[in-house]
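Bug #77: duplicate submission created two jobs. Keeping one. Sequence:
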Amino acid sequence: MKEVSIVGLDLAKRVFQVHGAGTDGGVVFRRKLSRGQVVAFFTELPRSIVAMEACSTAHHWAREIGKLGHEVRLLPPAYVKPFVKRQKNDAADAEAIVEAAMRPSMRFVVPKTEKQQARSMIFRTRDLFVRQRTQLINALRAHLAEHGVIAPQGIANLAALTGIIEDDNVGLEVVVVETARLYLEQIDVLTSRISSLEKALKSEAKQSENTARLMSMPGMGPITAMAIEAFAPTMTMFRKGRDFAAWLGLVPRQHSSGGKQVLGRTSKMGQRDIRRLLIIGAMTVIRWACRKAPSENSWLGRMLMRKPRMLVAIALANKMARSVWAMMTKNETYKDSGLAVA
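Kept job's structure:
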């Protein structure tokens, strides 16, 4: 045990696999642990590096093991997979984690705090309810279409759909009307829960100085600002704004070789929640700009003249991400210099 330098921990629900290695990478021990033995094992273990794959429970274990004095490193699972030798099993996974964590150029995931995970739970719950509400609306429209009732898409047209269902002149069967009312009741329940979650997010945003600073940017609302607080690590982890944009998946995919730079579509390899909200905010900025006819000399005006709106929205979201990095690292409010002006 005294020779161990780094320990790979393969997480599970009940049975955990640990792989200890020395400074030269040689195997010191291999062992299986039950869930109740994990904390006791690392309490007795001399201080060392403990590496784990970043997954749903990894942040909890990172906090618990970190309290014992160990240095915890979380690795993206995609970066561990190339180090798995032949067949996949728990022992091979734990060894691969150690191999990957010992690479000098390896990138690690910053463990989240309990507060960050609590806020992310609110976001994920809200997204789940929004998806369920969309499913119910689409299912209701599909069922009514079978009876000759065609309704436009979107929750904004739900009131008109309700009027059609309650209209006796439409001639729907009683069973169809009663079943449709069940759909409407469930949609109302989900709408109420979504509103309460959004109020909780907005109240949290008012209590944070960072979110107030972020909301000074056009297209950045309280929900997007709170998403950055919940899902993004400390901005000092990124060397520059482009690194943060790349972490979100807002940069072009590269296919470069032989000194020739070839850029493709947006990578989308990153934090999807913040990326999606930034693109939605960018589309809002574009819609308002189109109403006012943006200046042809501005960056946004020139882009809208040459490119489709969705492509411009992604480019604008990239600029917004870089501005977020600058605002958070310099502790400054938004300055209108990068989104609309060349």
